[in-house]
């Protein structure tokens, strides 16, 4: 028996014994933490039909809560409501599909009136100074 015949025989036996099968696909890993503040995210392995997500809830009083974790893929474009500590929150989901991709901080709300006022005052002093020269 030649070298190539021995190699082919070993390759066939290895395949028959399952030695050359590819490993099972790895599941997605996501950060997980509850609505509690502060959030200390812990890496968690998701189920096959889940993706990583950040769920952001906003109350009528503009209080924002956030939860991170695995979400069913079908939930990602949906919005809903959740009750947390007897307060109702409008809930929206931000989803991603890479390992630990949900580490981002909650998208911030638009700047408030104080910040806009400070920016306008700063701009007026800058432009006003140039107009006086």
TrEMBL record:
Q: Kindly indicate whether the keyword Aminoacyl-tRNA synthetase belongs to this entry.
A: no
Signal sequence region: 1-18
Q: Which UniProt keywords apply?
A: Membrane, Signal
Q: What is its main location?
A: membrane
Q: Which InterPro entries match?
A: Activin_recp, Ly6g6e, Snake_toxin-like_sf
Q: Subcellular localization, per the record?
A: Membrane
Q: Name one GO biological process term.
A: desensitization of G protein-coupled receptor signaling pathway
Q: What is this protein called?
A: Activin types I and II receptor domain-containing protein
Q: Which organism is it from?
A: Sus scrofa (Pig)
Its taxonomic path starts at: Eukaryota, Metazoa, Chordata, Craniata, Vertebrata
Name of the gene: LOC110261493
């Amino acid at each position: 028996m030649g070298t190539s015949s021995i190699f082919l025989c070993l390759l066939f036996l290895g395949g028959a014994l399952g030695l050359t099968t590819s490993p099972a696909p790895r599941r997605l890993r996501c950060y997980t933490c509850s609505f509690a503040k502060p959030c200390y995210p812990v890496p968690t392995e998701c189920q096959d039909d889940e993706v990583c997500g950040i769920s952001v809830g906003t109350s009528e009083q503009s209080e924002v809560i956030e939860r991170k974790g695995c979400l069913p893929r079908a939930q990602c474009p949906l919005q809903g409501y959740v009750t947390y500590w007897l307060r109702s929150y409008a809930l929206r989901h931000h989803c991603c599909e890479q390992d630990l991709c949900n580490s981002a901080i909650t998208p911030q709300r638009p700047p408030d009136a104080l910040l806009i006022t400070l920016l306008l005052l700063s701009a007026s002093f800058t432009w006003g100074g140039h107009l006086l020269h």
